[in-house]
Write a structure and sequence with these properties.
The chain is about 55% helix and about 10% strand. By secondary structure, the protein is of the alpha/beta class. It folds into three domains: about 90 residues, Orthogonal Bundle (Fumarate Reductase Iron-sulfur Protein, Chain B, domain 2), CATH 1.10.1060; about 150 residues, Glutathione S-transferase Yfyf (Class Pi), Chain A, domain 2 (Up-down Bundle), CATH 1.20.1050; about 120 residues, Rossmann fold. It has a five-stranded mixed sheet with strand order 4-6-5-7-8. Strand 1 and strand 2 form a beta hairpin. The termini are far apart. The N terminus is likely disordered. The structure holds iron/sulfur cluster (2 copies). One iron/sulfur cluster binds next to helix 2, helix 3, helix 5 and helix 6. It catalyses: glycolate + A = glyoxylate + AH2; (R)-lactate + A = pyruvate + AH2. InterPro entries: 4Fe4S_Fe-S-bd, 4Fe4S_Fe_S_CS, Cys_rich_dom, Glc_ox_4Fe-4S, Helical_ferredxn. Its cofactor is [4Fe-4S] cluster.
């Protein structure tokens, strides 16, 4: 045991403010699986504060406990003190990563997420070779062969679809309508920050957003050099890779931000990462490495003022509801929808009414626990703790099935991956559609 008090202000401040009321415990996602206070918000604050005070060392148990948190932020919404337990966990993961290092598979993944040219090539290759590796089952890819190493990583899970060309390869710069004669100075000028899963795997999400914006006579700009938001690296404690991506994005977006009225993100995790976690990451980097990020925090403030989740902006700042009033009602029995609230939309950004309003032409049935985490949890949970993701995902699949809906929707492709996997594993025959895909379909686009 060391007597040295480490300068870990974010961890210590939160732990000291906890009044031990336990309001955060019953709804905690990992507590619902383990039923153990060592993996619950209050327990996390206890062990992290003991570590911060030098009374506890980081060891395998500490690592296992902290890495079991889903970062769903449910605890933050329940806590009467609004303690930032998610930030405390993220901060502790940085020290875990510094002590244990980043596993090789993550290093490769994070390197690729920061190198679009190589990733474009790999995903195109994946498209052409996926029929050899994967077989289609109920419209989803599953591993075809029992290749031991691959089986270990992928298990029996549903694999995301591959596309021949990414969204950013299909669209770049100002789209055609801007250059057309109809362009007027009163038109809104909107940029799209797409997110990696919509860029590479669920390309129709971005395509739908472009079509909706063009139908609204908005000038659309696709910043071609946008980078990953850094969420996979941040949630794994890889702070240097995270801030490298954040700073590249901030420098790049600053070059054209003045020309835009807003930047839309059709992905809850990326939106929450940019609007909330980029500042946490920059502050953590300053705390751990003594780097002055003041200039980047200023750039970030300007960017966040103009950044919105796509559904929120469409609902609040366009005439889309008027268009939807004139669109057909799709209330037949084949189009019953249930909506899952991504944690990074409802709990962190408070966006949950907007997508429901935009889907008003469909029959909406609310599933039980629509705001309960789907169990995605990030790279570590999906790879090293997949049993936890399955446990939580099974409950979500059960609630979706019980709702009687034919389609489940959520504004998040990480939820889409996890929910599709859970539905197939539980033999629940419900399709997943992003709200933007449904809106575009409803508008006949
Ligand atoms: S973020 Fe979610 S899983 Fe982690 S402690 Fe809070 S409620 Fe539990
Ligand atoms: S709800 Fe907040 S104050 Fe109460 S035990 Fe949990 S973290 Fe502490």
């Amino acid at each position: 045991m060391s007597n040295v008090v480490r300068p870990l202000s974010i961890m210590q401040k939160s732990a000291l403010s906890c009044v031990k009321c336990a309001k955060c415990v019953p709804t905690c996602t990992i507590y619902s699986v383990n039923r153990d206070e060592v993996t619950a918000p209050r327990g996390y604050l206890d062990i992290v504060s003991a570590y911060a005070e030098g009374k506890l060392r980081i060891d395998e148990n500490f690592k296992d406990s902290i890495e079991s948190c889903f970062l769903c932020t449910t605890c933050v919404t329940q806590c009467p003190m609004s303690l930032p337990i998610d930030v405390v966990i993220e901060r502790a993961r940085v020290d875990i990563a510094r002590q244990y290092g980043i596993p090789l598979y993550k290093k490769i993944a994070f390197f690729l997420l920061g190198n679009r040219k190589i990733l474009n090539f790999i995903f195109s290759l994946g498209f052409y070779f996926s029929p050899c590796l994967f077989k289609a089952q109920n419209g989803h890819n599953k591993l075809r062969f029992s290749i031991p190493k691959l089986k270990e990583i992928l298990g029996n899970r549903v694999i995301m679809p591959f596309q021949p060309r990414s969204f950013l390869q299909r669209y770049k710069g100002w789209l055609e309508s801007f250059q057309s004669d109809s362009a007027s100075v009163t038109q809104q000028r909107i940029g799209i920050y797409i997110g990696c899963l919509s860029n590479y795997n669920y390309v129709n999400v971005g395509v739908s957003l472009v079509k909706i914006l063009q139908r609204l006579d908005v000038q659309v700009f696709i910043p071609s050099k946008q980078e990953c938001c850094g969420a996979p690296a941040f949630f794994s404690g890889d702070i240097r890779n995270t801030t490298r991506l954040i700073k590249k994005n901030l420098d790049y977006f600053a070059t054209f931000l003045d020309e835009l009225d807003a930047i839309l993100i059709p992905e809850a995790t990326c939106a929450s990462m940019l609007k909330l976690d980029w500042s946490h990451a920059l502050e953590i980097e300053s705390e751990v490495f003594g780097i002055d990020n003041t200039e980047y925090l200023k750039k970030l403030e300007l960017l966040t003022q103009k950044t919105f989740m796509a559904s929120e902006w469409l609902y609040k700042h366009t005439r889309i509801m008027k268009l939807l009033q004139d669109a057909p009602l799709w209330q037949d029995t084949e189009n019953i929808i249930t909506y899952h609230d991504p944690c990074h939309a409802r709990k962190t950004l408070k966006v949950f009414q907007e997508p429901r309003q935009l889907l008003r032409n469909f029959t909406m049935v609310e599933m039980q626990g629509s705001n309960v985490c789907c169990g995605f949890g990030g790279v570590t949970i999906q790879s090293e703790k997949y049993h936890l993701a399955k446990h939580v995902g099974d409950n979500k699949a059960h609630n979706i099935a019980k709702s009687g809906a034919h389609i489940v929707s959520a504004e998040c492709s990480a939820c889409r991956m996890q929910i599709n996997d859970s539905l197939v594993r539980n033999n629940v025959n419900v399709d997943f559609k992003h709200p933007l895909e449904l809106i575009a379909q409803n508008l006949g686009l």
